[in-house]
């Protein structure tokens, strides 16, 4: 069993950084903690690592209870069988690559021969064998982060913890490293927790994503689940671009503020009003007058208010049904053009408007 967190809380004086967070992560599973700055993701990770002491709740790693403040139990960080990678790399400038990677083993008293072979293997895994004798100042940012990765995986940890490890790298390198971290974790088959505020990173790397807001979990799901079926306005907004149409009940169905009947996907139970959430790629842009064939499609008249050419497509903002909706299309339309938006009912997801 990878990681189990039950009712975890952490207070800094009167400030509740996290309040009652629970989740389980299986061996081999890659889970991201995603949320805006200050939502408590780093604090959660640091409590798992043992770098912060939780105020309440229980944490188990690899089936072993490591934190239960109510019972006075606290296993120190260096006994928790974790490998951790930080945003700042945290490699030591006065040590060579080899010495940096060997450090966790040397403090545990592993024999020199054992240490040498494990270091060689870890460096091979991250592709740095040829740079073993360099110092960090002689390495690029991406190479330094690989040193940190090698140091995290040495000594067969039960779990890997990542705290925004790619935020200091440039965009291109970041994408490459995403794949590298993911492949490495798959190979090791151990649980990984990855803290990020970058939704693309979370969606592209994770088996499941835990979305946090103000010290609490607001939704947990696979990347597709979260993107396609957000259960709140906050999640809809945080995991991607979204258009939100204000709706009210009308007879058995729903209508927009301008009185147009709107067909929606079955969603969360809502009150008399709600929001219909739709992703830009699920809106078909039709020139004014053109009509879509399928029956379960909302046809909304609108006017183009913004157009941004992005190469593969143009991102339009269209005022329709009392909302500003983003849509992607390859056609070329000027601002002010009348259009019809085609939105299939299955792509309009109800979320509470509160
Ligand atoms: P970021 O993405 O900016 O790192 P985060 O989601 O990781 O944000 P945390 O760093 O976990 O958020 O912080 C959660 C809350 O706890 C914030 O309101 C923060 O101000 C508060 N906090 C964190 N560390 C301390 C501390 N040492 N003393 C007091 N408050 C703290």
Automatic annotation (TrEMBL):
SUPFAM superfamilies: MOP-like, P-loop containing nucleoside triphosphate hydrolases. GO terms for molecular function: ABC-type transporter activity; ATP binding; ATP hydrolysis activity. It comes from the Bacteria. The keyword Aminoacyl-tRNA synthetase does not apply. Keywords: ATP-binding, Cell membrane, Membrane, Nucleotide-binding, Translocase, Transport. Pfam families: ABC_tran, TOBE_2. Residues 3-239 form the ABC transporter domain. GO terms for cellular component: ATP-binding cassette (ABC) transporter complex, substrate-binding subunit-containing. Belongs to the ABC transporter superfamily. This is Iron(III) transport system ATP-binding protein/putative spermidine/putrescine transport system ATP-binding protein. It comes from Humitalea rosea. The lineage of its organism: Bacteria, Pseudomonadati, Pseudomonadota, Alphaproteobacteria, Acetobacterales.
């Amino acid at each position: 069993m990878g990681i189990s967190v039950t009712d975890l809380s952490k207070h800094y004086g009167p400030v509740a950084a996290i309040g009652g967070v629970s989740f389980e992560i299986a061996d081999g599973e890659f889970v991201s903690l995603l949320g805006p700055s200050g939502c408590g993701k780093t604090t959660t990770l640091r409590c798992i690592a043992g770098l912060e002491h939780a105020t309440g709740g229980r944490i188990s790693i690899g089936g072993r209870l490591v934190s239960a403040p109510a019972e006075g139990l606290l296993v120190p960080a260096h006994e928790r069988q974790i490998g951790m990678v930080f945003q700042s790399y945290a490699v030591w400038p006065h040590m060579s690559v080899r010495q940096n990677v060997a450090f966790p083993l040397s403090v545990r008293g592993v024999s020199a021969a054992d240490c040498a072979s494990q270091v060689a293997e870890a460096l091979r895994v991250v592709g740095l064998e040829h740079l073993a004798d360099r110092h960090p100042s002689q390495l690029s940012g991406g190479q330094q982060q690989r040193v940190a990765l090698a140091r995290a995986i040495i000594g067969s940890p039960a779990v890997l913890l990542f705290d925004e490890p790619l935020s200091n790298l440039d965009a291109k390198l970041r994408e490459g490293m995403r794949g590298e971290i993911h492949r490495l974790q798959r190979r090791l088959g151990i649980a990984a927790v990855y803290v990020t505020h970058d939704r693309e990173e979370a969606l592209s790397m994770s088996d499941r994503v835990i979305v946090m807001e103000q010290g609490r979990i607001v939704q947990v799901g696979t990347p597709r689940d979260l993107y396609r079926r957000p259960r709140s306005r906050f999640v809809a907004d945080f995991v991607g671009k979204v258009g939100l149409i204000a709706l009210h009940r009308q007879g058995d169905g729903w209508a927009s503020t301008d009185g147009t009947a709107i067909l929606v996907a079955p969603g969360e139970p809502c009150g008399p009003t709600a929001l219909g959430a739709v992703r830009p790629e699920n809106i078909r842009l039709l020139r004014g007058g053109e009509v879509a064939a399928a029956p379960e499609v909302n046809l909304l008249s609108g006017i183009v208010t913004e157009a941004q050419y992005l190469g593969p497509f143009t991102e339009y903002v269209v005022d329709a049904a009392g909302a500003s909706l983003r849509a992607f299309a390859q056609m070329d339309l000027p601002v002010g053009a009348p259009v019809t938006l085609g939105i299939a009912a299955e792509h309009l997801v109800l979320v509470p408007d509160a």
